[in-house]
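Example record

One chain of 176 residues, shown exactly as stored in the release files.
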Amino acid sequence: MTSKLSSVAFLLLLFSACDGEIQSVAAETPQDLMNGWVGTWQVELELKKSFLVPEDTTIRGTETVRWILNKQFLQSQQSYADGNFKKLSLIRYDPNEGIFLFWDFDSNGSFPMGITRGKWDQAKKEIVISGAYIGGATAQGVIQFNNDDSAEMHLRLTATDGTVLLDLKARSEQLR
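Predicted structure tokens for this chain:
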């Protein structure tokens, strides 16, 4: 289980754009979008076998999101694998660039190793995710919103030689 958690730690660092952070489908502004993230979420991650994940794995957990620092950042606290793996994420919208920025830290010592960005497309009800990380790895993905209380995300992390480092699908639902 420890080796799986180590691999997952890196994975969770890189897909910080999605951890249960559900956006309001009807959002007209980034502020509306972020307000829709506040709350408690149930998260399920399906990790396909890849370089960092030795076998297909499903991990479940919860996430609590709240505003901090005069509503300049969202703070997300996550707990997975019955509390054996924890994560802290910060999210900020940069109005000058029109993008969301994400930073992840976890209980295995992982911290931001590059830039993860998200671009909201209100017409498509999705956020397009991209990332560039130390060593040349890149990430591409999308979060598709089913409604105000649920979403699905697909993300693939690839090394410079084309090796799939990580391939995941996440589902999130708001707890009421």
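Notes: The chain has one domain: 2-174.
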